[in-house]
Amino acid sequence: MLTVIEKVKLLLQVDILAESTSEELAYIGAIAGEEEFAPRTVIFRAGDPPDAMFIVLSGRVQMLREGSGGLDLEAGPGEAIGAWALFDDQPRALTAMTLEDSRLLRIDREQFFDVLSDHVGITQGIFKALVRRIRTLAEITV
Amino acid sequence: MSPKVATHGRKGFLSALFDIRPGETERAFLLFANLFLTIASFYILKPVRSSVFLVSFGPEQLPYVFILIALIGGGLASVYSNFSSHYPLNRLIIASSIAVTAILVLFRLLLRFDEGWVSYAFYIFISLYAVITTSQFWLLANNLFDAREARRLFGFIGAGGILGSIAGAAVASTLASSLRVENLILIAALLIGLSIPITARAWPLGIRLAPGPGSAPPPGSSMARRERASGMREIFGLIRRSPHLALLIGIIALTVVASTLVDYMFSKEAYDHFAARVAREQTADLAAAGQDLAPEQLQETIDRQVKAELTRFFARFLGLVSTVSLVLQVGLAGRILGAIGVAGANLLMPLGLLAAASGMWFFPGLVTVASARLVDGALSYSIHRAGTELLFFPLPSAIKDRTKTFIDLFADRMARGIAGALLLILTGIFALHTRGLAAVLAVIIALWLFLLGRMRGEYLSAFRRAIAGRTLDIEEIRNMVRSPDAIRTLASGLAGDERQVAYTLALLESADSNLLVPHLVPLLAHPSPEVRRLAMRKLAASEDADHRGQVAALLEDPSRHVRREAVRYLARTAPEGAEGYLRALLAAADWRARGAALEVIADDAQEGRDGERLQWIDGPLLDSLLAVGGSGHADACAAVLRAIAALGPGTPHASRLEPLLNHPDPTVRSEAMAAAGEVRDPRHLTPLLAALENPRERPYARPALARYGEALLPLLGAVLDDETADLGVRVQIPGTIGLMQTQPAVDFLLDRLRHPRMDIRFQVIKALGKMRVRDRDRRLRFDPHAVEARLVEETRDYFDLQTALAVWNGGQRGAAAPPGALLSRALGERIDMNLERIFRILGLRYPTENMLFAYNGVISDRRALRASAIEFLDNLLSPQLKRVILPVAAESDPRALVQRGRELFQLTAREREDVLRQVITGGDSWLAACAIDAVQELGLREFDAEIGAHHMSRDPILRETAAAALGSGAPSAPR
């Protein structure tokens, strides 16, 4: 079982949360729960409502795009899955399935928003991360 | 009366007259003096410039100089932009003023030698320096005042310019005869020289951080040229697409051409008149005295005399123009605009000039030409300018700004150049004199009037488009909706969808309601409740009484806000009088009518009207409304709560409020909290304090608690300091106290600046900062000793954290994610937060907005912005604060910071183990948890005792981390 401090170290690697302070991430760490999955287990399917984001603690997770039939992405330890789903009401675009025994950290969307409403600093951090990302995209485009 | 008292009294009078508030007096008076000197010097130099040139070359050369000014002005603008991007504004203004003073002295010396080019250069220099100096002055003013202050004070500061123009003209006309005309240049140089120390004194009083070179390309760079070129392409594209814009620029260009023609004719007639008169008088005087002078000597005497006469005449004339312009601007412009509208205001100048041109045709001479120049000079900066500004209104702000820049940089100069070329042709090739030029002027005015005629239709269309697109600035437009003409134009926007109608009604907020009645009545049946409410409110505010039938139907409107406004109208127009009507309505069978009447009575009482009507409110009435069920329940409760709020403290109905504070409907709860703030019953404190924890209810609970006032401070203080109380509630207490906006609240919060909890301390600083920003009249006193003492403490903490971080990082260089990286990050974050607190506290001692600019500069990655921030702080801070704060802003090297910490606070650099021990045993729970985690990662065992002390910590994360480090594996608990 991970402590909140250990969860914070993982959350710091999530792109969209990277601008929040470590103390603020502890509030998210406190609502993050661990889940274990057997190999070839579907974590979520494309078209499912976005209800949570995940961080891979151990194992490997395959991300598949419906219809294309091929492997799109693979996430390993420390990598986040479905982070943008926290902010998007659109159904999931990809299906996530474990490739081996895997342990994931799950952050529930509803609880996440409760934390945001209490800790405005996290929202500011997310905005900063979004701005940084947009600026990077703009620089690449230009 | 002692002199001191007398001075104080005068200051009080001026402050009251011009609404100069404490903290603004010095800045306002310095700028007033600066503008006075700047304009006075110009009004001395302007007549000298004209007379020196005319005597040297005669009026025939004026067209050439007009063209040269247009051409050189473009180059100078570019060179000046280059300078302005490389140097701070204060240095640029001071350097320009020194240069202008020196150049004027040089011109005075060169004018002794009677070289023709000197008069040319002098004319061009004076024409251009005036533009640059004035624009520099307003840049300085914008730097010293924010937009809110500017709106109040620029009128007062501008008065300095008007007085300067009158004084400068008076000096020139008085001294032109007794001094040599050229010596007036030295007086003007002296006045400009006097403005230098004023600029130097004023600058630090409100200095802002100029954006660094990174924010925009230097104007002279290739990127800037590309941007300017693309900007020009864009503006030409806009002009092609917008008939309104094309007409506007055409009108402005024709105004400039006409004005230049009048200026030429005026100079020529004045020169011809005085040259002839002086020659006649000199010859007569010599003949009478029986003297005979050599022709060169005679010419020199005549020239000197003509210069003096012309200077005196031009100066007196400029003084007259300034005075008439002032009278028009201050006394008549608003009334004339209100009476004749935009179209009429724009017709005044061309019609005035046309009348003057007719006069010049029939009676060519100085009097008629001077009358044209008077019309031009007096109207240009008063009614005509206001009328032209109004023509810009329908344009969206972005286009408006770009168009104005285009006109300043390009169209105005080009029109002057064209006017110069036209004059060359008319006077050189066609040899036209005043009568011929008056005819040409009449043709130009005819074209001008034609464009104005076209503009009228286009202006209305542009207005309609702007209303449809909601691009009008409500604050700007409110000042102009006084004439029926403007109201009719705006009312065309009342035919659209909900947003457009609501927007148009907002634009018409300050318009006379009576003029709007025909437009409002159809809106009472609009499908949107918001439109019905706005229309009903405006109708209720009018004197109309002819639509009672339609309005009575609205008593059954689904919206309680519409019903309330309907009751206002019906009460005002009731044959039995408002009192009888409202009383009868309170007994109506329909609860909606009772509720609406109750709300009107309550609202009126809260606004200080007819408070005695509150006596009509009784328990059965309130209970009858509270008993309303179904979809109307929330509305009925809201009416009851409004009434209880109006009844205020001590009302016997306060007990009805208690259950509503816990009502399941959030709108009822919010109204109940607002009412609780008015009633201020101790029984309601517990639910209000509990609501602080809920982010959705907090916005209502905080002001309600603040309304209890200072009597609540001991209780709020007890909650704030109670370690066992909910932290979510405690951190809301400082902001709640801040809303009281009283001196005891300030003193209470200043005392809590030393609160041991960093998060609470931060909230205290924030609350104090907001109080200071809201305190526009500077009534509150933020004890400088308490503020500076806290600043020193915070700065000490800053260096302590920097020392700890430097020591901690010093032992782990090279690894990508070394053990203890989280502690390193957390220390860095604490340093950032500490820096923010330091600048927020500085904002309690110095202008808050400036400290925000300084903070943004200090944390910026841009070197130039950071350097500006450091220079700014260097100028502003007291020596004692400078000593400790400047290193915070200036140093970024960890070793230098450790060294500074040692010098300033005797902080010693320790070993890494010392840092761990200090952090684990310190009061910061999060840092302690990170340090314990670092101990665990490093496998250290010598801290078990210190970690063990946190095994029973109230902070769940610290407790969990300590347990994990000690190997007991306590279960995690949500924070």
Mean pLDDT of chain B: 84
Content-based structural category of chain A: alpha+beta
Count of helical regions of chain B:
44
Specify the number of helices of chain A: 4
N- and C-termini, Cα separation of chain A: 46 Å
Largest interface chains and counts: A-B, 17 and 23 residues
The quaternary state of the protein chains shown equals heterodimer
> Rg of chain A to the nearest angstrom?
15 Å
What is the CA-CA span between the terminal residues of chain B? 68 Å
Tell me the overall shape of chain B.
flat
Dominant shape of chain A: globular
Describe the sheet with the most strands of chain A: 4 strands, antiparallel
| Beta-strand percentage range of chain A | 25-35%
Taking the sheet with the most strands of chain B, its summary is: none
Mean pLDDT of chain A: 86
Describe this protein's structure:
The complex is a heterodimer of chains A (142) and B (975). Chain A has 142 residues and is of the alpha+beta class. Helices cover 35% and strands 27% of the residues of chain A. Chain A has four helices and eight strands, in the order ααββββββββαα. Chain A has a four-stranded antiparallel β-sheet. A four-stranded antiparallel β-sheet of chain A has the order 2-7-4-5, with no helix packed on it. In chain A, strand 4 and strand 5 (71-75) form a beta hairpin. In chain A, helix 1 packs across helix 2 (22-31) and helix 3 (109-118) packs across helix 4 (120-141). The longest helix of chain A has 22 residues, at 120-141. Chain A is globular and about 40 Å long. The model of chain A has no long low-confidence stretch (mean pLDDT 86). With 975 residues, chain B is an all-alpha fold. Chain B has 44 helices and no strands. Chain B is flat, with a radius of gyration of 37 Å. The two termini of chain B are 68 Å apart. The A-B interface holds A 1-5, 8-9, 12, 21-23, 26-27, 30-31, 117-118 and B 695-696, 728, 822, 825-826, 829, 833, 926, 929-930, 933, 956-957, 960-961, 964, 969, 971-975.
